[in-house]
UniProtKB/TrEMBL annotation:
GO terms for cellular component: cytosol. Residues 359-379 are annotated as: Disordered. This is DNA helicase IV. Residues 359-377 have a biased composition (Basic and acidic residues). It comes from Plantibacter flavus. ATP binds at residues 201-208. GO terms for molecular function: 3'-5' DNA helicase activity; ATP binding; DNA binding; hydrolase activity. InterPro entries: (+)RNA_virus_helicase_core_dom, DNA_helicase_UvrD/REP, P-loop_NTPase, UvrD-like_ATP-bd. Residues 180-606 form the UvrD-like helicase ATP-binding domain. Keywords: ATP-binding, Helicase, Hydrolase, Nucleotide-binding. The keyword Transferase does not apply. GO terms for biological process: recombinational repair.
Length: 745
């Protein structure tokens, strides 16, 4: 019977792979054809072409990346219909019959949610296990209510497929869970797009998995909209992004931008580190005022009148009052600093024209005459210097760097901070190798600076002059081209260019051409979004949301003004030094409304290891619900106490033993001060570094390992609540076994 079912599913899987192969070749050809079809004189727009090419390419990627674990389920409905469920949807190219239902389609939902008590129209649910292209097992569940009593277990929570998935050895990349999504997770994944959803869950409850599958689901369900507007995913650090990076393509999605707090602003990647205290101070909302003052400080820094001399003419005296009035006018208009540069310059130049007129006893110039004079004056070195000092073009990251390297500036713009706070915020200006001050502020930026850079960028805006200059040139060249075309056509004499309409047509097509060139941006929406700080995303997902500082939340909210967001996190795993003990305290001041969902089952950590972590949870928050481990491990945690000098050698031995005796990967989580020694000893022992990860508790956030070696749990960093929380994180990273190595003193 089982063998018949396996053979039957094998036939189906073979058929699916044939279809995938031919379909993906077809999509590739279609995308090439679409590219070529619009190459010629076709008047369809480029954006139409881009959309078509992107559509075919996306489908091709989807088809090619779905072949692993393509088929995993079958639903037999009471209506006698049978539907296979898999990673993507597929139809028979000839008959049009549905061969495979996408796991995200509404019709697939009962696969995850039907129970014997609520069978949702199902008669049978079959789980299909595969290895590569081979069907290895099938498991049928009969969902016929008439055959079951009331106390029959409901749900599919503890099915063999789930336990097999959880017991599998881990790799350095997270795997998707499309075949074993649980009902409580499914409800979150398929929640509606609008509004803010907050998912609280203890360690290992699948928050990250759910967040990523939700991204894939939303892109499926709202494809049109989100393929254009893109989904933003914010993760805690680059190791984490690397860990999850393969989940999305394997789900077939590419319209996603992944960032960390360090890379939120396009073009920047902050590598320097802040102390916990400095990070906390930088994260507070009052920094927004400090940044605003730091920007305003650069506008009209003038206390005394300034005298300008232009060769050959008498002096002109510009007073601070006049410049401040111009500044006040700009402030009232709300125009960002760099964008207001042209306006400021023009107002000052007009004032200078007035001063000249007064000095020379003439009427002030007006109209084109004034334009010409403004242009001349702006090229005078003395005037240029005045304009550049009074209203310099600003660079957001440079403003923030100066803020933390210039004590006097910081004292002026952060008067409400205490002296101690300012001391914590300041950093040494880095020096170059030759002892001179390094001018490259980029190397000094910390992740905590980036939200402040974003704040500054918002106030500063773009320097519009290069774009205006480009447009001016383009308009000139176009006029020149039209003139040239006109003279050529007149010379040939076979077209009457006196005909106004034709001239208009020519101009219109020249205009079209220019417009087309600007539209000829063949980057995908995700690539465009990734390079545009002001991009408005269709949906924003934040993982480890408990780590958001208020300033970071403010920067992220700018990217999702429609508040279509999913935040996942665990308030007990918050390791910032400013503990905000509830989501309300953390989000409330900036985000007034959200719907909260709770995840309760720990899919990662075996019961015995959770028992070791539980006292830490109780210390963190006795009222927080304990996540329930779904399984018991085969091994009890091991606790070793050694001399301080033996910490690193003992940890290395435990890690090497773990990867020798067991499949999968080991993680050594240790205080930063021990990591160099541990890495050296691992190298000496010839350990396979692809299978041993080392790092601090903070760096281990969101990651998991088959075996964890935890060194000195009381010294993992931070103080008070943050230290406890880091210990809780570290204790809950293992999927199979845990060794704790502590020192006797
Ligand atoms: N339904 C499921 N089927 C199979 N595996 C699952 C399921 N749900 C979660 N897992 C697995 O459990 C592990 C933990 O999931 P995940 O990392 O998403 O949890 P988390 O809540 O983000 O954890 P933490 O907050 O501790 O970092 C992962 O290996 C994930 O693949």
């Amino acid at each position: 019977m089982q063998n018949d079912a396996i053979a039957e599913e094998q036939d189906h899987l073979d058929r699916l792979h044939d279809v995938i192969r031919s379909q993906s070749d077809l999509e590739e050809r279609r995308s090439e054809l679409a590219l070529r079809a619009f190459d010629g004189d076709d008047d369809s727009s480029f954006s139409e072409r881009d959309a078509l090419v992107a559509h075919h390419r996306q489908r091709m990627v989807e088809l090619r990346s779905s072949s692993y674990g393509l088929l995993f389920g079958l639903l037999e409905r009471e209506t006698d219909e049978r539907h296979h469920i898999g990673r993507i949807g597929l139809r028979d190219p000839e008959s049009g019959d549905q061969l495979l239902l996408d796991w995200r389609a509404p019709a697939s939902r009962p696969f995850y949610t039907a129970t014997p008590l609520r069978p949702e129209g199902l008669r049978l649910r079959r789980r299909i296990g595969t290895a590569g292209r081979r069907v290895t097992e099938v498991h049928d569940e009969v969902l016929d209510t008439t055959m079951l009593s009331d106390d029959e277990p409901s749900g599919i929570g503890e099915s063999g497929a789930l336990l097999a998935a959880l017991g599998r050895a881990r790799t350095k990349h997270m795997a998707d869970i499309v075949d074993t999504i649980q009902a409580e997770q499914d409800a979150i994944i398929r929640a509606p797009l609008p509004g803010t959803l907050l998912v609280q869950g203890g360690p290992g409850t699948g928050k990250t998995a759910v967040a990523l599958h939700r991204a894939a689901y939303l892109l499926y369900e709202h494809r049109e909209r989100l393929m254009r507007s893109v989904v933003l995913i914010v993760g805690p650090n680059s190791t984490f992004l690397d860990y999850i990076s393969r989940v999305l393509p394997s789900l077939g999605e590419t319209a996603v931008v992944l960032v960390t707090p360090a890379t939120l602003v396009p073009g920047l990647d902050a590598h320097a580190e802040d102390s916990l205290e400095a990070a906390e101070l930088k994260g507070r909302l009052r920094m927004a005022d400090v940044v605003a003052r730091a920007v305003r400080e650069r506008q009209v820094p003038l206390d005394e009148p300034v005298t300008i001399r232009i060769a050959g003419d008498g002096p002109l005296r510009v007073t601070p009052g006049v410049l401040r009035r111009i500044k006040a006018g700009i402030e009232r208009s709300g125009t960002p600093h760099n964008e207001a540069k042209l306006r400021f310059d023009r107002a000052v130049l007009t004032h200078l024209i007035g001063l000249e007129a007064k000095r020379d006893g003439f009427e002030p110039r007006t109209g084109e005459d004034a334009d010409e004079r403004r242009q001349e004056l702006s090229e005078e070195p003395a005037v240029e210097e005045l304009l550049d000092t009074m209203w310099p073009i600003l660079e957001p990251a440079e403003i923030i760097d100066r803020l933390f390297t210039d004590p006097e500036l910081l004292a002026r713009v952060a008067p409400d901070h205490t002296e101690e706070e300012r001391r914590l915020l300041l950093r040494e200006p880095a020096t170059g190798t030759d002892g001179t001050a390094a001018t490259d502020w980029a190397v000094r930026l910390t992740p905590g600076d980036i939200a402040l850079v974003d704040e500054a960028a918002e106030l500063i805006g773009e320097d519009q002059r290069p774009e205006l200059e480009r447009q001016r040139r383009a308009a000139y060249e176009r006029r020149h081209d039209v003139e040239y075309a006109r003279s050529v056509l007149e010379m040939i004499g076979d077209i009457s260019i006196d005909d106004e309409a034709q001239d208009d047509d020519y101009l219109r097509s020249a205009q079209d051409l220019a417009d087309r060139q600007t539209m000829e941006d063949d980057r995908s929406p995700a690539e465009r979004a990734a390079s545009d700080r002001t991009w408005v995303y269709g949906h924003v997902i934040i993982d480890e949301a408990q780590e958001l500082t208020p300033m970071l939340l403010r920067a992220v909210l700018r990217r999702g003004p429609n508040r279509s967001m999913t935040l996942v996190g665990d308030i007990n795993q918050q390791s910032t030094s400013a503990t905000r003990s509830s989501w309300q305290e953390l989000l409330g001041p900036q985000l007034p409304r959200w719907t909260e969902e709770l995840l309760t089952v720990n899919y990662r950590t075996p019961e015995q290891i959770m028992a070791l972590a539980d006292p830490v949870r109780l210390e963190l928050d006795p009222d927080s619900p304990a996540p329930v481990s779904i399984r018991r491990g085969e091994e009890e945690p091991v606790q070793l106490t050694v001399e301080p000098t033996a910490l690193a050698p003992t940890a290395v031995r435990a890690a090497v033993d773990a990867i020798t005796a067991h499949a999968g990967i080991a993680g050594v989580i240790a205080p930063r001060s021990l990591l160099a020694e541990i890495d050296t000893l691992l190298a000496d022992a010839g350990a396979d570094r692809a299978r041993v990860w080392t790092g601090t508790a903070r760096e281990s956030k969101g990651l998991e390992f088959d075996s964890v070696v935890l060194v000195q749990p009381a010294a993992l960093g931070g103080t008070g609540h943050a230290a406890l929380s880091l210990r809780y994180v570290a204790l809950t990273r293992a999927t199979q076994r845990l060794t704790v190595v502590d020192s006797s003193s």
